[in-house]
Amino acid sequence: MKKQPIRYILAGVLTALCCIALPLASLQAQTDSSAAKLVAKKKVAYTKYTFEGNFIMDEQTVMVPSAKSLEFVFQHRFGTFNNGFTDLFGIFGGAHIRLGLAYTPIDRLQIGAGIYSENMGVDINAKYAILKQTKDGRIPVSISWYGNVQMDTRKKDASTLFVTFSDRLSFFNQIMIARKVTEKLSVQGSFNVSHFNNLEGYLDENGGVQPMYKNTHLSFSLAGRYKITDKFSAIAAYCQPLTQHPMNNPHPNVSLGGEIRTSGHTFQVYVGNYDGIVPQLSNLYNQNDYTKGQFLIGFNIDRFWSF
């Protein structure tokens, strides 16, 4: 048998390798292309800035800051206008304030705590973004849950009616559904549940104690923002009580105001008839009737840091 020159053997081997490698390269290229398309398909573009911050006056919004963000909030409510110049339309009247800190440890979840003057209260709260509106419309709305536990820290005496520690506690839960309709207009609706472990009662004609309120109170809220300029927006909110109580049914809340947004701050100044700050207290105890002009001035200042 005639021996083949070495160069012919090498040429044959290289040809065979090319015949194997070219189909494999083509298959790999197709696989890489399919993987790239799959990654691109999975990447979701979410709608940004449905609202400028966490609050629309007295209402929470669906917004949860980005992960590793710290928020400091200062909330203030003056007294009502009722006394006119006597207390300079409530500015020199009784006021409520709250100082709060909140942190976003992971995407979609914010946890926080606050202290406030009403009942010397302390609250712990959390918010979670369940769904986020997408730019392609596949998810048409954003849905978030907000909840808190608040504690009345006043000294135990005859006026506070505390028997056990749990009597100091109340709870608030809220489901919010919002949509950024246009670049200027955003709207939100929410369903709210407030629960109090202990509530005041009264003595009936037979000397028995009757409840003034039901322990669980239901309400719904509507809120909206319209951007007038890149930095300034008009904001509005309405909260309607649903539960009927034996006495002192709360009045609805109506609020109108303006909002200014900077790179790290959100400022809101408004007129409304909630004089409380913690939502369950405002929802159950609001006795300011907007139909009688019982409004007050309030403002919120938010400061954000990202780490």
Please give the structural blueprint.
Blueprint: H1 6-42, E1 55-56, E2 59-60, E3 69-80, E4 96-106, E5 109-116, E6 121-131, E7 142-152, E8 169-180, E9 185-196, E10 201-203, E11 209-211, E12 216-227, E13 232-241, E14 253-261, E15 265-272, H2 279-285, E16 296-306
Antiparallel strand pairs: 1-2, 3-4, 3-16, 4-5, 5-6, 6-7, 7-8, 8-9, 9-12, 10-11, 12-13, 13-14, 14-15, 15-16
Helix content: 10-25%
- CATH classification, class level: Mainly Beta
Q: Strand order, biggest sheet?
A: 3-4-5-6-7-8-9-12-13-14-15-16
What is the radius of gyration? 29 Å
Distance between the termini: 78 Å
Named at the architecture level, the CATH assignment is: Beta Barrel
Domain tally: 1
Number of helices: 2
Give start-end ranges of low-pLDDT stretches: 1-11, 13-25
Shape: globular
Order of helices and strands: HEEEEEEEEEEEEEEEHE
Tell me the fraction of residues in β-strands, as a range: 35-45%
Please name the fourth-level CATH homologous superfamily: monomeric porin ompg
Number of beta strands: 16
Q: Remind me, CATH topology?
A: Porin
SS-based class: mainly beta
Sheet with most strands: 12 strands, antiparallel, barrel
